[in-house]
Amino acid sequence: MNDWLIVGIGNIGEEYKNTRHNMGFIMLDFFANEYNINFVEKRYAYISKLKNKENNVYLIKPTTYVNNSGLAVQYWMNWFKINIKNILVLVDDINIPFCEIRFREKGSSGGHNGLRSIEKYLGQDYARLRFGIGHEFAQGEQSNFVLQEFNNDEKKKVVNKKDEIIELIKLFIYKQF
User: Fold this and answer.
1) Which of 61, 89, 112, 151 is surrounded by the fewest CB atoms within 10 Å?
2) Catalytic residue positions?
3) What are the angstrom distances between the C-alpha of 114 and each of 34, 52, 64, 71, 97?
4) Does 177 have pLDDT greater than 50?
């Protein structure tokens, strides 16, 4: 049996819901909504499960905030006995142009605190799907930029990427079944 763990990185709370730094949660919600599944709060995360034949696909949104995402990922990886090769992390990226998407089977944190936390607990051998949030901010304003909400035009562009995001997550899961 091959089980999977799909992780959306973001911050919990209404004040962060539509911010750039919550793009991992947004992508995971697109995927969960495709299957009409909901999340329940458990230890360190909101969690949901999708069953495909004899395989389980677990979806988590850590409640540990971006900077300590690794704690939740390690906990659920161990709880469900998920192979690190079967983990996909969905994350925002300021180093990628807005609305550009990149998939990597492994790699560095690229300066992202959530990925840095996961790297601390798991190393670098997990897959990640990065969504470019752009980098239109003044020097020293990175924190303010990532915690800003998308404007209406940007929201439309993000929603227009929904099908591509869902398809990439499916490809990650199904190519390995």
Assistant:
1) 151
2) 21
3) 25, 29, 10, 10, 19
4) no
| pLDDT for 105 | 92
CATH number at residue 54: 3.40.50.1470
How far from 40 is each of 45, 46, 58, 59, 161, CA to CA, in Å?
A: 8, 5, 12, 10, 26
Q: What is the pLDDT of residues 27-85, one digit of tens each?
A: 999 999 999 999 999 999 999 999 877 889 999 999 999 999 999 999 999 999 999 99
Q: What is the number of other CB atoms lying within 10 angstroms of the CB of residue 159? A: 12
Domain that holds residue 165: 4-174
